[in-house]
Write a structure and sequence with these properties.
Elements: H1 2-18, E1 28-34, E2 43-52, E3 58-64, E4 71-75, E5 81-82, E6 91-95, E7 98-103, E8 107-114, E9 122-134, E10 139-151, H2 160-166, E11 170-171, E12 176-181, E13 184-190, E14 201-204, E15 217-220, E16 224-230, E17 239-244, E18 250-257, E19 265-266, H3 269-290, H4 297-310, H5 314-344, H6 358-375, H7 390-403, H8 412-419, H9 424-447, H10 449-453, H11 461-515, H12 522-533, E20 554-555, H13 558-566, E21 571-576, H14 581-591, H15 594-602, E22 606-611, H16 617-625, E23 633-637, E24 645-647, H17 653-664
Parallel strand pairs: 11-18, 12-18, 20-22, 21-22
Antiparallel strand pairs: 1-2, 2-8, 3-7, 4-9, 5-8, 6-7, 9-10, 12-13, 13-16, 14-17, 15-16, 15-19, 17-18, 21-23, 23-24
Helix pairs in contact: 3-8, 3-9, 4-9, 4-11, 5-7, 5-9, 6-11, 8-9, 11-12, 15-17
């Protein structure tokens, strides 16, 4: 009865609007675009770009209780063929108790075109579209034609396709199962426990199987997410659908009749809080570990020296510590908010995203030079001057947060990956936890008198220690300069050297005046800093050098992993970047060692490197799929294994040699 009423309602809504078809008025803009030129015998991605008018919406492949799906009639040259339409995840719209699966804003439906082997010149592609566009009160069936003359050859690609693909549900490789239990359709979807689920919803692709407007419930076991759906009619074969996990990630699955687990815990608000607490404490521990990194440790040590100079002034020490903590939390929070804003805008970005831009690398290089000269006593940087006060502490904490971003240690990757799947407020709390962990040692020194009393008494040793701390900071400056060369080539290197020399000269002049007790000539220094800042706008992504990895492995792609596994070979994949300190240490100590390379070669292992030095949406999407927000990440695909083994972030040669040896045996 409901289906009949639905049909009648849709007919009533459509009839008064059908007269508009002849008037030429259109409420949905349509266009056909290609990702890039066509290569003979290969595939190229096409997109049907749909742009509804304000207040109007289009429909998903299963429109729900009302509406109708879009139909496309293609016209290709002989030998060309199109794959199925691939829709992004829709939203839900309830009108008169009818559930609709719709798109209220612009969306793109993707399709892969198989290019003929003998293609040349241009390929004329034509399509006729038949679709329904509606408001909450009226529907209009529209028809339109799109055309594209696709060049054959090579050329640039359209960056919008990365954003459109990111909105598609990811195909689930493992088979799901379903069973009918009374008036419920139970669907068991394979899902590892490590994958975050907050507010799931299942969109059925198979029609007439469930009642769309009724409530859905979910429970979870260690390796299954079980949906209990209101049954309309039992499926006659496979049941297909898309499960939206409520985290910005969705999976497309196909289920066959089979057993469904009876146990499991309900998925709801408690699950979200559990994940939030896990991610928050993981971020705190990860931030604590960051204090041991070469670029952060000198700053922490300087603040400890400031405490030692303060002696027993407990009030000043605590105010300074609170200022430092606030600066660290605000610093990581601002970086996290910027990351969330970029991802909300469709960009594929991850932690330390700013270091994928050479202009930020140049700024980090100049900052490292200034801190090094300060540690050497050649000038006094107000932020690190050694005086205990809340304002100076806040600035130092924010500085520590910024220079810590190239690093990611244990606990951080999983915590940040979870943060990117949580609602915005929860994600910001996790980023704040990272800043809290960064500031925790200084907080303990300030608020635990027994710890502060263990600090050595002030003396000449403090100056010697400060000079020693200049060494790791100078090495950090050299690392930033090397990264600038990797990203910007010779022009980036020259720009860094000139800017660094100008900044160094300005700071040395200021230091000499400070030593004589004179003003540091703030105006000339500001002028010189502005002179240094001008080149920041002269180096861009277009000048980035191509990163070469030599014999360390071929460039990663999911297709290469699949091909190697199909051939029965083990696969070792490492995700790295030139700005990732932990990555470089593992490469030098383990991956690039001759004994490890020989073992992998003897096992006929495919070694693939995913280089994230420059922004790469494919790598970012894959990290998201693994619940990771940062690198390094090391995966070992054993022959015949269903899932890869995720290796620890601190690698040892024995780990890889042992796994390679197991394959040979």
């Amino acid at each position: 009865m409901l289906r009949f009423l639905t049909f009648v309602l849709a007919l009533i809504l459509a009839v008064p609007a059908a007269a508009q078809l002849g008037s030429g008025q259109r409420h949905m803009g349509i266009a056909l675009v290609a990702e890039g030129p066509a290569a003979p015998g290969q595939e190229v991605e096409l997109a049907l770009v749909m742009t509804p008018e304000e207040g109007w919406h289009g429909y998903w492949e299963n429109p729900g209780d009302a509406g109708k799906p879009m139909s496309v009639a293609w016209q290709f040259p002989q030998g060309a063929a199109a794959g199925p339409l691939r829709y992004p995840v829709p939203t839900r719209l309830v009108v008169a108790d009818l559930m609709n699966h719709v798109f209220k804003g612009p969306y793109a439906v993707l399709v892969r075109l198989k290019v003929p082997k003998n293609a040349s010149g241009t390929l004329p592609i034509r399509a006729s579209l038949d679709y329904l566009v509606c408001t909450d009160t009226v529907c209009v069936p529209e028809r339109g034609k799109v055309a594209l003359d696709l060049p054959v050859g090579s050329g640039p690609t359209d960056p919008r396709f990365d954003e459109w693909r990111a909105k598609l549900p990811q195909p689930l490789g493992s088979a799901a199962s379903y069973a009918v239990a009374g008036d419920k359709l139970q669907v068991a979807i394979p899902l590892p426990e490590s994958v975050t689920v907050t507010a799931p919803y299942l969109y059925a692709i198979t029609g007439e199987a469930i009642r769309y407007a009724d409530a859905q419930t979910f429970r979870r076991t260690a390796d299954r997410l079980i949906a209990e759906l209101p049954l309309d009619a039992a499926p006659s074969g496979r049941f297909e659908g898309v499960i939206d996990l409520g985290t910005g990630r969705a999976l497309r699955f196909a289920a066959a009749p089979g057993p469904v687990p009876e146990d499991g815990s309900a998925v709801g608000g408690g699950e979200t809080w559990r994940l939030l607490l896990f991610a928050f404490f993981g971020a705190v521990v990860g931030g604590l570990i960051l204090n041991l990194m070469p670029c952060v440790f000198p700053i922490l040590a300087l603040k400890a020296l400031a405490l030692a100079r303060a002696g027993g002034e407990e009030r000043e020490a605590r105010a300074d510590a609170l200022g430092y903590t606030a600066g660290a939390i605000v610093g990581t929070g601002v970086l996290g908010a910027a990351l969330l804003a970029l991802r909300a805008g469709g960009s594929a970005a991850g932690w330390a995203f700013q270091l994928q831009d050479p202009r930020t690398t140049l700024l980090l290089f100049l900052l490292a030079i200034a801190i090094t000269l300060n540690l050497l006593g050649l000038f006094k940087l107000p932020v690190l001057g050694g005086d205990s006060n809340p304002r100076g502490g806040f600035a130092t904490g924010a500085l520590a947060a910024f220079v810590a971003t190239p690093c990611a240690g244990p606990f951080m990757g999983a915590a940040l990956g979870t943060a990117l799947l949580l609602p915005a407020a929860g994600a910001l709390l996790v980023f704040a936890g990272l800043g809290l962990g960064l500031a925790l040692p200084f907080l303990l020194l300030a608020f635990v008198p027994s710890l502060r009393r263990r600090l050595p008494r002030p003396g000449p040793w403090m100056m010697r220690l400060q000079r020693i701390l200049a060494v790791p900071m100078a090495l950090s400056a050299l690392a930033a300069l090397w990264l600038l060369w990797r990203q910007g080539g010779a022009s980036g290197l020259l720009l860094g050297l000139v800017s660094g020399a100008v900044l160094g000269l300005a700071l040395l002049m200021a230091g000499r005046r400070q030593g004589r007790g004179e003003p540091a000539l703030a105006a000339p220094i500001v002028a010189l800093l502005l002179l240094v800042a001008v080149p920041l706008f002269g180096i861009g992504r277009g000048e980035m050098a191509v990163t070469q990895r030599g014999n360390s492995g071929e460039a990663w792609s999911e297709a290469k992993v699949a091909a190697a596994r199909a051939a029965g070979r083990p696969v070792f994949v490492y995700f790295t970047a030139d700005w990732c300190l932990s990555c470089k240490v593992n490469e030098a100590s383990t991956i690039d060692r001759e004994s490890v390379r020989d073992a992998l070669k003897a096992a006929n292992a495919e070694v693939l490197v995913a280089d994230w030095t420059n922004a790469d949406p494919a790598i970012t999407r894959f990290l998201d799929s693994r619940g990771r927000g940062a690198i390094p990440l090391y995966l070992w695909y054993a022959p015949g294994a269903a899932e890869p083994e995720e290796l620890p972030q601190v690698l040892t040669p024995a780990m890889l040699i042992e796994r390679a040896g197991a394959v040979k045996r």
